[in-house]
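Workshop exercise sheet. Pairs work together: one partner reads the sequence aloud, the other fills in the structure field after running the prediction. Swap roles for the next sheet.
Pair: D.N. / O.F.
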Amino acid sequence: MTNLAEKVRHHPVVDAHIAKRAADTQLRIADAITGFAGSMPFVYVHAVLFAVWMLLAEKDPWPKLTLVVSLEAIFLSTFVMIGQNRQAAFQQAKADHDFVAQEGELQTNTELTRAIHALVTEIHRTVTASPEA
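Structure field:
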């Protein structure tokens, strides 16, 4: 039985993008952080941690909690921008690839149309030629 990953075919730009991200440790770390930060477990973990902090850890948790939450927001917004930049670069690479592929197809179709026109012209010339007596 074949592996499901072997059955799935991706756009060449997607394959290149996946390979690039897999090869770079920083990109893998950023992907892991943004993957977790954009999930419900992230929300649940923070809700529990903040509740424990506010109820049990400190008598007056607000100054430190405000600092921690502000710093976390700064870092998470940076990861969101990294993700947006990554997505924009991916979309541009895909658009560039698609443009080149479409231009190649257009060129091929133009050449085929010209060849068909030449053949039709030759057939017409042959059919309408007067028979020599």
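Discussion prompt: The CA atoms of residues 88 and 94 lie 10 Å apart. What would you look at next?
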